[in-house]
Amino acid sequence: MSEMGPQILQPAQWSRPRGYSNGIVASGRQIFVAGQIGWDAQGRFNSDRMADQVRQALENICTVLAQAQAGPEHIVRLTWYVTSRDEYHTELAISARRTARDGKEFPVMSVVQVVASWSAKRK
C-alpha cells in the first residue's frame, strides 16, 4: 500500500462528526472485502453481544486486508447492517468502532437497519 494515507475531508465550518468521517480521498490500489460478520475462522459465534460480534467482524476484515499487505489504516468505507438500531446505539461505543482505524481517523460509514440477517439464521 502507498505510504500516503487517506486524506480526511472535514469542511472547516462543519462540526466534526462522531464515529465517521464526512469524506475521504484515497489513492492507490483498491481492495474489496466481502461482507464480514461476527463469527470466528471456524464459522462460530462466540458471543451474542453486538459489540463482541462487531469486534470479531473488524478482526476478520483486518485478516483479509493483511492478505494484500494492508491494514485497518487503509479502510476508507464501512457499511454496517444491523438488526437493531437501539442495540447499535446502546452497545457500540465509539471505542469499538475506533478499532477499525487504530484510533486515528474514522472511515466514511453508513449504518443500515435490516429486519433480519442471514447470519441470524445460521445460529
Write out key terms for the chains shown.
single chain; 123 residues; alpha+beta; two-stranded antiparallel ribbon; globular
Assembly type of the shown chains?
Answer: single chain
- Binned strand content: 5-15%
Q: What fraction, in percent, of the residue positions are helical?
A: 25-40%
Sheet bearing the most strands, described? 2 strands, antiparallel
The beta-strand count equals: 4
Tell the overall outline. Answer: globular
Element order: H for helix, E for strand: EEHEHHEH
Structural class: alpha+beta
- Residue-averaged pLDDT: 80
End-to-end distance:
37 Å
Question: What gyration radius follows from the Cα positions, in whole Å?
Answer: 15 Å
Number of helices: 4
Question: What does it look like?
Answer:
This protein is α+β, with helices and mostly antiparallel strands and 123 residues long. Helix content is 28%, strand content 15%. The protein is built from four helices and four strands. The chain has helices at 50-66, 85-91, 94-98, 118-122, and strands at 7-9, 23-25, 77-82, 108-113. The strands form two sheets. It has a two-stranded antiparallel sheet with strand order 1-2. Strands 3-4 form a two-stranded parallel sheet. The N and C termini lie far apart (37 Å). The model has no long low-confidence stretch (mean pLDDT 80).
